[in-house]
């Protein structure tokens, strides 16, 4: 049985560099850097100084076939995640794919299907928010029926402020051909994953999306989406990159109470003493008037507040450790790679609803989405359409 996983880092930019730092500092149990790959010659010089004993490659296939790595992480542009993931698995190398798993479900499905044909290999996705104790607790509360059946979800996550200069760092940023979208594929994939992981996938979406609303970009920087869960429950998801005083508030209403998450730091749970439907059926109007004319609501519910501290980097380290533990000890994955398709499907549906100007059902029409995406890429005239 393997004792230490030699990780190949494909792309040593901001994210890849962060992971390399954690591993080289001994912060990730059962993991060492096996090799580094990047197409930028300047990165080779940097790595020679910083990681002198680590082999460096400018071609990821060469790295995969070098014998120096047992697993890889794909810190590369979004379109490349499925391609590199498949290439690794083909060579019996474990794959940890960065979020999002891809840009469109058609390519992610191909990755998932190939990974399923290699069950002996570990296939994970870097959903570090799933290791966040706050969201693990939130999922536990919902799964245990603490607030009953979900009636409505609302998540406003606008804490992604990005100035124009951010988009001008690289030519591929905020383009359909290079990045495949804006806030939905770059900043908000974690929330799209958490939303479906905790509350389930909606059956339909209807969205109002603004492209280049407050920034000189082709892709979306403002999103408002209505979710329909198919059982009467509804939701709203709002995100953007132009709110410098952003809000992060996630509210889940159930028939037995309500949970509010503020700033991804605090959970407030209000549990009704009696389910709302039962109160509606049994309370007299006099009882109701007593509540609204002075008695108040305090007698009908209890309140619990849970505070969480966030340690920078801890969640990323947890994903890397969990990935290594799955390879070494068979520990279950917190974020199996196959789960990556759900958030991509949701983002695709939000885009498609906006492009078509109508409500869109899930699972989304993959061929239609792909055709519409290619229209955007062709109009942009910056890169070839996808095949």
UniProtKB/TrEMBL annotation:
GO molecular function: nucleotide binding
Superkingdom assignment: Bacteria
Pfam families according to UniProt: GFO_IDH_MocA, GFO_IDH_MocA_C3
Domain Gfo/Idh/MocA-like oxidoreductase N-terminal: 6-119
InterPro entries for the chain: Gfo/Idh/MocA-like_OxRdtase_N, Gfo/Idh/MocA_Oxidoreductase, GFO_IDH_MocA-like_dom, NAD(P)-bd_dom_sf
Stretches assigned to the GFO/IDH/MocA-like oxidoreductase domain: 135-259
PANTHER family: D-GLUCOSIDE 3-DEHYDROGENASE (PTHR43249:SF1), UDP-N-ACETYL-2-AMINO-2-DEOXY-D-GLUCURONATE OXIDASE (PTHR43249)
Annotated protein name in UniProt: Dehydrogenase
């Amino acid at each position: 049985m393997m004792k230490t996983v030699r990780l190949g880092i494909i792309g040593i930019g901001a994210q890849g560099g962060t992971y390399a730092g954690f591993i080289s500092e001994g912060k990730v149990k059962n993991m060492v850097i096996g090799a580094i790959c990047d197409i930028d010659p300047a990165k080779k010089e940097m790595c020679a100084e910083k990681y002198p004993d680590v082999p460096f490659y400018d071609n990821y296939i060469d790295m995969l076939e070098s014998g120096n790595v047992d697993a890889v992480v794909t810190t590369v542009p979004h379109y490349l995640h499925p391609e590199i993931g498949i290439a690794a698995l083909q060579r019996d190398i474990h794959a940890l794919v960065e979020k999002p798993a891809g840009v469109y479900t058609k390519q992610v499905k191909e990755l998932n299907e190939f990974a399923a044909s290699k069950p002996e290999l570990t296939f994970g996705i870097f959903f570090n928010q799933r290791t966040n104790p706050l969201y693990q607790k939130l999922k536990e509360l919902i799964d245990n029926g603490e607030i009953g059946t979900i009636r409505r979800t609302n998540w406003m996550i606008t804490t992604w402020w990005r100035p124009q200069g951010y988009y001008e760092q690289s030519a591929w940023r905020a383009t359909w051909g290079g990045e495949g979208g804006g806030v939905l594929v770059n900043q908000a994939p974690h929330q799209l994953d958490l939303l479906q992981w905790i509350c389930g996938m909606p059956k339909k979406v209807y969205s109002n999306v603004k492209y280049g609303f407050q920034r000189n970009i082709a892709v979306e920087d403002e999103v408002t989406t209505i979710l329909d869960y198919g059982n009467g429950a509804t939701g709203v998801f709002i995100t953007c990159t132009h709110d410098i005083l952003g809000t992060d508030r996630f509210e889940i209403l159930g028939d037995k109470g309500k949970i509010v998450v503020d700033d991804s730091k605090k959970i407030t749970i209000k549990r009704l003493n009696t389910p709302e439907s039962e109160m509606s059926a049994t309370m007299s109007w006099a009882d109701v008037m007593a509540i609204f004319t002075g008695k108040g609501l305090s007698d009908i519910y209890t309140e619990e507040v849970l505070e969480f501290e966030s340690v920078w980097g801890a969640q990323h380290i947890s994903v890397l450790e969990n990935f290594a533990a799955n390879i070494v000890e068979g520990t279950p994955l917190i974020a199996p790679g196959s789960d990556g398709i759900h958030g991509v499907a949701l983002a695709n549906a939000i885009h498609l609803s906006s492009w078509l100007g109508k409500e869109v059902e899930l699972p989304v029409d993959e061929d239609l989405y792909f055709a519409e995406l290619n229209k955007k890429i062709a109009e942009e005239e910056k890169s070839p359409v996808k095949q």
